[in-house]
Every structure is written in structure tokens, then in C-alpha cells.
């Protein structure tokens, strides 16, 4: 009986951990998109205190995270999307990155 209870608890903990992490990532992504590409802690504070409109309710984020963690057909990022998200560097930054050996 004890091994069954331990296995059940481990399964529940695993699902909870995966879902929580995925929900946090989705929530952060929504806030980044709303703030223009980078999280603004000032705007986040205003949202939490009711001075700005909230983005979404947490139930939809949790539902997306739970469904997304069990779906088999996950979307892979396209090469075009990666090319668009590439950060533009100035000439000095590019030269410094080349010297240091960092690649995009």
C-alpha cells in the first residue's frame, strides 16, 4: 500500500511542478509581449494594484499550461522566426563579440 501511495504522490508532484513552470513561462511571455518585448516592473506593479488593465485571468494560463504539457504535437520554432528575433548589434559590439568568440 505504501509504494502505491508514494508513486501516486510522486506523479501528482511531477504534474504539478511541470504545470506550474509552464504556466509561469506563459505568463511571463504574455507580460513581455504586453510591455513591448521586455518586462516592465513599473507596469507590472500598476497592473497588480488595479491602475492598469490586467492582461488575462490566471485560469486560462493554467489551462493552457496543463493542456500544453500533455499535448504530443508541440510546435517547433521556425528558422524565419529565429532570424527575426535576432538582436541587432552596433559595429563595435559585433567586433567585441567576434573577439570574445560569442556567437548568436
Overview of the structural elements:
The chain is an all-alpha fold. The protein has one domain (2-75). It contains 5 helices and no strands. The chain has helices at residues 2-34, 41-48, 58-70, 79-84, 91-100. The radius of gyration is 20 Å and the shape is flat.
Order of helix and strand elements from N to C terminus: HHHHH
Low-confidence runs of at least 5 consecutive residues: none
> What percent of the residues sit in helical stretches (DSSP H or I)?
55-70%
Number of strands: 0
Rg over CA atoms: 20 Å
Estimate the strand proportion: under 5%
Counting helices, strands and paired strands, the structural category is mainly alpha
Tell me the count of domains: 1
How much is the average pLDDT? 78
Q: Largest sheet, if any? A: none
Short summary:
By secondary structure, the chain is mainly α. The protein is built from 5 helices and no strands.
Please specify the SSE layout and strand pairing.
Layout: H1 2-34, H2 41-48, H3 58-70, H4 79-84, H5 91-100
Which properties best describe this structure?
5 helices, 67% helix, 0% strand, flat
Amino acid at each position: 500500500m505504501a509504494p502505491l501511495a508514494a508513486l501516486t504522490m510522486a506523479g501528482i508532484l511531477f504534474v504539478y511542478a511541470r504545470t506550474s513552470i509552464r504556466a509561469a513561462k506563459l505568463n511571463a511571455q504574455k507580460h513581455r509581449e504586453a510591455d513591448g518585448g521586455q518586462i516592465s516592473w513599473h507596469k507590472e506593479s500598476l497592473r497588480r494594484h488595479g491602475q492598469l488593465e490586467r492582461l488575462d485571468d490566471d485560469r486560462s494560463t493554467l489551462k493552457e499550461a496543463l493542456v500544453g504539457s500533455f499535448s504530443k504535437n508541440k510546435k517547433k520554432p521556425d528558422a524565419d522566426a529565429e532570424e527575426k528575433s535576432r538582436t541587432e548589434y552596433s559595429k563595435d559590439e559585433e567586433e567585441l563579440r567576434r573577439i570574445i568568440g560569442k556567437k548568436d
